[in-house]
Amino acid sequence: MLHESAMTQALELAFSGVRGANPLVGALLVSAQGEVLAQGHHRGAGTFHAERAALANFFAHHPAGVDLSSATLYSTLEPCRHQGRQPACTQLIIEAGIGRVVHGASDPTSNGGGAAVLQRAGIEVLSSVLREECEALNHRWTAAQEQHRPFVTVHLAQTLDARIAAADGTSQWITSQASREHTHRVRSRADAILVGTNTVAVDDPRLTARTPAGDLTQRQPLRVVMGLTPVPKRCKLTQALPEGEGWVQLRTRDPLEALQELAQTTHGGYPVKHVLVEGGQSVLSAFFAAGLVDEVFAYHAPLLLGAGTASIGDIGVTTLREAPRFALDPAESGPVQIMDSDVCVHLQPKGDTCSPES
């Protein structure tokens, strides 16, 4: 019961993170007497892994070299053994002298095997505590890994009647300033932003990530156009502007083919592991129809158009039983946020539960 209680706390910590290139992970360092010594969670690509965050929080208030041989480190995911943007968690755990590690889900990728590394170092390892809940936490991230493709977040900025443009084609701006600022925060952590050729022709977007003040963020995503129609030579994203390095056109209408090509692409020295899809209708519909959407931010503005372009077109559904279903996602800032006059709903495809409470 102690293990399950601690793992439940670790799961709650994990939901404070953001989805994307890396899985959500929570970690808890507990003494032999059951006292929580430190906690941590993964905050996104390039930041401390949950185990390292917990250890950093502990050593910020305790001297280095303190005896942790009787302590237990709980993690929702098997500690990694690979060096990426951050060092291997297994090495940090070994150096800290922790006596026992308890994890929920095993790492499903080729980077797994951390438990065996810890055991060879003499650390007691207990696995599969609340395994189903820990696997459900990242079920869509796992699906992306199995399909050898980036994690896909979809952006829907629409009216109450699910229109993304009026009958005359106008679309700027349907949603509020607060909604657009949130979109830019999501853009800044994505490795790539993908739109269709029609969006480029009609809206001429720059596809940049900017601060609320309008300045470019330090990290800019790769700008991606999907489709067969040539990109206009004078459109903004092709110009020599300081919006970030590079853009690419993927000459395909197949979303899986596009994602698998992006999976072989690097940007800023790192592989593309998280793609933000912003539309328009044809591209969004293709991703939904193919079951390649892992996360949705749907921004609903208090407007009615009655006519115009719907956000989603035909996705091959002919009866209610065939309709893809989604679940509220409690990750990040929760499933529902008020952004000025808009309502932002955060969703994941249903199929596995998105939280211990689901």
Automatic annotation (TrEMBL):
PROSITE patterns: CYT_DCMP_DEAMINASES_1, CYT_DCMP_DEAMINASES_2. InterPro entries: APOBEC/CMP_deaminase_Zn-bd, CMP_dCMP_dom, Cytidine_deaminase-like, DHFR-like_dom_sf, Eubact_RibD, RibDG_C, Riboflavin_Biosynth_HTPR. Its EC number is 3.5.4.26, 1.1.1.193. Pathway: Cofactor biosynthesis; riboflavin biosynthesis; 5-amino-6-(D-ribitylamino)uracil from GTP: step 2/4; Cofactor biosynthesis; riboflavin biosynthesis; 5-amino-6-(D-ribitylamino)uracil from GTP: step 3/4. It holds the Pfam family RibD_C. Its cofactor is Zn(2+). Residues 1-126 form the CMP/dCMP-type deaminase domain. Keywords: Hydrolase, Metal-binding, Multifunctional enzyme, NADP, Oxidoreductase, Riboflavin biosynthesis, Zinc. One of its GO terms (molecular function) is 5-amino-6-(5-phosphoribosylamino)uracil reductase activity. Binds 1 zinc ion. It catalyses: 2,5-diamino-6-hydroxy-4-(5-phosphoribosylamino)-pyrimidine + H2O + H(+) = 5-amino-6-(5-phospho-D-ribosylamino)uracil + NH4(+); 5-amino-6-(5-phospho-D-ribitylamino)uracil + NADP(+) = 5-amino-6-(5-phospho-D-ribosylamino)uracil + NADPH + H(+). CDD domains: Riboflavin_deaminase-reductase. PANTHER family: 2,5-DIAMINO-6-RIBOSYLAMINO-4(3H)-PYRIMIDINONE 5'-PHOSPHATE REDUCTASE, DIHYDROFOLATE REDUCTASE FAMILY PROTEIN (AFU_ORTHOLOGUE AFUA_8G06820). In the C-terminal section; belongs to the HTP reductase family. Converts 2,5-diamino-6-(ribosylamino)-4(3h)-pyrimidinone 5'-phosphate into 5-amino-6-(ribosylamino)-2,4(1h,3h)-pyrimidinedione 5'-phosphate. This is Riboflavin biosynthesis protein RibD.
